[in-house]
Write a structure and sequence with these properties.
- The protein has a seven-stranded antiparallel β-sheet with strand order 1-2-3-4-15-14-16, with helices on one face. A five-stranded antiparallel β-sheet has the order 5-19-6-17-18, covered by helices on one side.
- It starts with a helix and ends in an 11-residue tail after the last strand.
- With 354 residues, it is of the alpha+beta class.
- It has a domain at 123-343.
- Strand 9 and strand 10 form a beta hairpin.
- The chain contains four helices and 19 strands.
Length: 354
């Protein structure tokens, strides 16, 4: 009996030892936490094959996402920058700007456009309705590099001349009537840098074009002639009124002729860029002209920063390429003894002139 108990006890102890060894083996190989040497485990991409938008990776990729991979240690050849077109050197009133308006050689007439190395004139013709009345007008958009391309001329012979004759005599590309100063005894008159009259007209606005290409208008009594002469004026007109105030249209004017009439005006954008405008009028069914406020609005809509009214009525005409293109009322070609504003090639200067 005692021998049987010993056998059973030994067997039990052997089984217990075997079980303990098995448990210890299982713990070492399956249950104990694993340790790593600091390297990151690559896990499957949880966003793969889903519609979720990933945030951009913070690490720099080892290869460009697009394009052809480069061999190692090879410096890529940079793509050459396109060669820019040459820009002309600053010159003249426009300082090298608007160079596309001019030619590199001979002058060209193309329909209603004239272009040369120094002058560009673009002529447009318009039909509009203002206050239920037809209005026909012409705009000469002007770019010049030399101030002498904008000149004034007037007849010096008995019997006088018309705008068309003066335009032809002086090689004008485009010309309009001026301020009719020959028939007035007062008002500052400067033509092509020459002071012809300095007697002021106390009731008129004046307009001055300086040699540097700037143009300014002055209300009656708001200018000093000595100050103007000190700034090298090139042209001065005494008719008016001024048409813009600080670049904006006006509603009150220094004039007694505000009703509809044929009109003539000069506009200024910046040195070297001007316009001449002629509005036909007093012709039922064709063009009835503009009131002064409407002329002011037109010059504003054209983009002018300064604008000045010149003599209108039967005086107001425009000549382009040796042809009278406007239609002054009562037929004919406008008044005789009329001074003109014209655009032409610049005056040739001697070697000692600046």
């Amino acid at each position: 009996m005692r021998n049987k108990l010993k056998i059973v006890l030994v067997a039990f102890l052997d089984l217990a030892l075997l079980a303990g060894l098995l448990l210890l083996f299982a713990w070492f190989h399956h249950a104990r936490p694993q340790r790593f040497n600091g390297s990151v485990i690559n896990t499957p991409d949880p966003f793969a094959h889903t519609d979720v938008t990933r945030a951009p990776a913070t690490e720099t990729p080892t290869a460009a996402p697009t394009g052809t991979p480069l061999p190692p240690n090879v410096t890529p050849t940079p793509t050459p920058e396109p060669t820019p077109e040459p820009t002309p050197e600053p010159s003249g009133l426009l300082g090298g700007r608007f160079w596309e308006k001019f030619t590199d050689g001979e002058a060209i007439w193309e329909g209603n456009t004239y272009r040369s190395q120094n002058v560009c004139v673009e002529l447009t013709e318009h039909d509009i309705t203002v206050k239920n009345k037809p209005v026909h007008y012409f705009v000469a958009d002007i770019y010049i590099r030399d101030i002498t391309s904008l000149r004034c001329e007037f007849p010096t012979v008995d019997g006088g001349k018309r705008v068309l004759d003066l335009a032809k005599d002086n090689g004008a590309i485009v010309a309009t009537s001026g301020d009719y100063f020959l028939h007035r005894s007062r008002g500052v008159v400067i033509r092509n840098g020459v002071l012809y009259r300095e007697k002021l007209h106390s009731s008129q606005d004046i307009c001055v074009l300086y040699r540097d290409g700037t143009m300014e208008t002055y209300l009656k009594g708001k200018f000093n002639l000595n100050d103007i002469l000190a700034r090298s004026p090139y042209q001065a007109w005494s008719f008016g009124p001024r048409l813009l105030e600080n670049g904006l249209p006006m509603t009150e004017f220094n004039t007694t002729v505000e009703e509809r009439n044929p009109r003539c005006a000069i506009g200024y954008y910046e040195p070297g860029h001007y316009c001449l405008v002629v509005v036909d009028g007093r012709q039922e069914g064709y063009s009835m002209g503009l009131e002064m406020a409407d002329l002011s609005m037109l010059m504003y809509e054209l983009g002018c920063t300064e604008a000045y009214n010149l003599d209108g009525g039967s005086t107001s005409v425009m000549v382009y390429h040796d042809k009278l293109i406007s239609k002054p009322p009562y037929g004919g070609g406008g008044r005789y003894d009329c001074d003109v504003i014209l655009i032409a090639e610049p005056v040739e200067r001697s070697d000692n002139e600046e």
